Amino acid sequence: MTQTIPGLMTSAPLLVSSLIDHAARHHRNGEIVSRLGDGSLHRYRYPDCRRRAMRLASALELAGVQQGTRIATIAWNGFRHLELYFGVGGMGSVCHTINPRLHPDQIAYIIRDAADQMVFFDVEFTGLIAQIAPLCPEVRNWVALCGTHEMPAQSMPSLESYEALLATGSEDYEWPVFDESAACGLCYTSGTTGQPKGVLYANRSTVLHAYAASLPNAMNLASHSVVLPVVPMFHVNAWGIPYAAPLNGAKLVLPGRMLDGASLYNLIEAEGVTFAAGVPTIWLSLLEHVEQNSAKFASLQEAAIGGSACPASMVDRFHALGVDVVHGWGMTETSPLGCLSRLNPRRTDLPLEERRRILQKQGHALFGIDMKIVNGNGTELPWDGSSFGDLMVRGPWVLERYYGADHPVGEDGWFATGDVATIDSNGAMQIMDRTKDIIKSGGEWISSIDVESIAMAHPDLLEAACIAAEHPKWGERPLLIAVARPGASVSENDVLHFFEGKAAKWWIPDKVIFSESLPHNATGKVQKRELRERYAGQLS
After folding, report:
1. Are residue 297 and residue 151 in the same domain, yes or no?
2. Closest CA to 16 of 82, 97, 114
3. Taking a C-beta distance cutoff of 8 angstroms, is the pair 315, 309 a contact?
4. How far apart are CA 251 and CA 254, in angstroms?
């Protein structure tokens, strides 16, 4: 038997510190713009970010932080948060981003479960920190992301300012070199069922994910790109953008806490944003502002949409404004990007309806990600665009096991996503529903996502959610909960008639209930479990 021989190439570990080093050395004029809490803008460049990140790493080392130590952040998208990404991960510690929209008890649980030693937080979350600090006695230091003159008045043990901590470090610090499999980041799932679970990202997986996210079939980033991650840095590392932007030397625009439509539009226009990423609820606010003010986009070329399914009407509204939609799919457990949907050059001349159908799919897997759909027995189903199955994925930035768990989550590296999907003959995947949300009516499946997409195209509806309601004959039937646009006069019959000719008759909801708003979870997704608890008996 013949044996392989080793290649004769330099061996260098893939470390997140190399990303900011590359940007600072080869894209020195690459700008990082952050909107601060008072609405003003902070500007500096990649070399400045690198110097401060290294000073932070030095300060943490002097404070006794060791490699592998978990360091938590509770903060919006801003320059100091970005420095934490690289300062903490670069020194071999773990940057643990926490969603401040979670319940305080849940945040305290996450901090304790992760065994965080320090917590860095934006000043506006001081009240939240005061609530959770007594519940987290193992945390040694609480650090406010501000200067000494901006410190919160509230008295807390072991409280210091970020800038004061930074001043104790040295810019002569050198990044350590260690095994690329070492962890650099930690995110917790949203905990929709049971307690949140930790997903621990490696340096290697993070760098590979940044490469993949940058590809033309993904985010298509380059040094001339101006990138706005509206998706928060505490939501799966802002979909990897804080790592992918410096990899390409792209200008990075960080929006802070002001995420209303007017604020986002003004920032996009002022900074010449070409690519922005966010969840559908955020884009609804932006589109409402633009359309109500008869405004236009001067620079924005693409809007990446993920987190939940993108309605066809949203694709049309962006297209009317000259903006292409990049529909994507991913999870905390997949770092998060798994696939994105783009029109290849051969399909740009297709009729509008066909283009819309393509763009509504989550698209093709990125290189590195493999996927399949299986039935309840685990048998792989055909890629014919019509067979529904449980979506399974694997790859070098897909979870092997949850933080603190003893066993892998799947066999042969396959992770069960909890989504029901189809894959067509060209390899394009489409999420039909979450396993727990799909509607089983008389033995047939109905996709709540497809029902919602049709409803969202109604001109008088602002938002809609479809759930399974108990039915004495059919087991389950679709029930639509809708939010009307301000000032609109729309009835249940108006909405039901709108479905005619757009869906099979048995897919049309049995009832429409109007509500002033829909409940959303901490990442902007509609909380269908809450809706089911409230309305599941409406048809029985």
Report:
1. no
2. 82
3. no
4. 10
**What pTM was computed for the model?**
0.89
Residues 455, 349 share a domain: no
For residue 37, give both structure tokens: 């809490």
Q: pLDDT tens for residues 42-89?
A: 999 999 999 999 999 999 999 999 999 999 999 999 999 999 999 999
CATH of the domain at 508: 3.30.300.30
Q: Which two tokens stand for residue 519?
A: 């409940």
3-state helix/strand/coil string of 245-297:
HHHHCCEEEECCCCCCHHHHHHHHHHHCCCEEEECHHHHHHHHHHHHHCCCCC
Nearest of 292, 316, 294 to residue 303 by alpha carbon: 316
- What angle is formed at CA 186 by the lines to CA 303 and CA 273, rounded to 5 degrees? 20
pLDDT of residue 472: 86
265 shares a domain with 193: no
Quote the domain boundaries for residue 40. 30-197
Task: Indicate whether 492 and 355 sit together in one domain.
Answer: no
> What is the distance between the terminal CA atoms of the chain, rounded to a whole angstrom?
69
Check whether residue 465 and residue 336 sit in a common domain: no
Q: Are residues 46 and 191 in the same domain?
A: yes
422 in the same domain as 357: yes
**290 domain residue, yes or no:** yes
Catalogue the active-site residues: 189, 333, 440, 445
Q: Which two tokens stand for residue 329?
A: 């799919």
